Amino acid sequence: MSLLTELRDSALQMPARVLVWLCLALVPANLAILLFLDEPFAIPIAALVFAGLLPNVALLVRHRRFTSVMGVPHVLAWVPLMPVVVFALLRHSDDMSTTYEIYLYVLLVVNGLSLAMDIPDAARWTKGERTVF
Asked: To the nearest whole number, what is the mean pLDDT of the chain?
């Protein structure tokens, strides 16, 4: 079976709300940083965003499934991301476009909600619970 087929099948095993969250909120909100790379603090924000996303590509290839370990890169990269975004908003809001400022607030909310789910998942994974979809 091909990797893409296995990943599709794994995604379809996830609760519908999780799949909708991934497809309509989490991935688009994080990839949208690419639209703002010329804005203040966008490069370090993008680096942390992708530090949370890219390891999951390797994890998907390795496990050929969606697993609870995928929350670990989010926790490691996005916990530090949150204060960086807040700093950018507090210190540079006069230098940024309104669209970028709104985007940063959306990113805070989306990744904050993600971390609320990822932190318990990562903690369970470190304790040996290996959820696989």
From this structure: 94
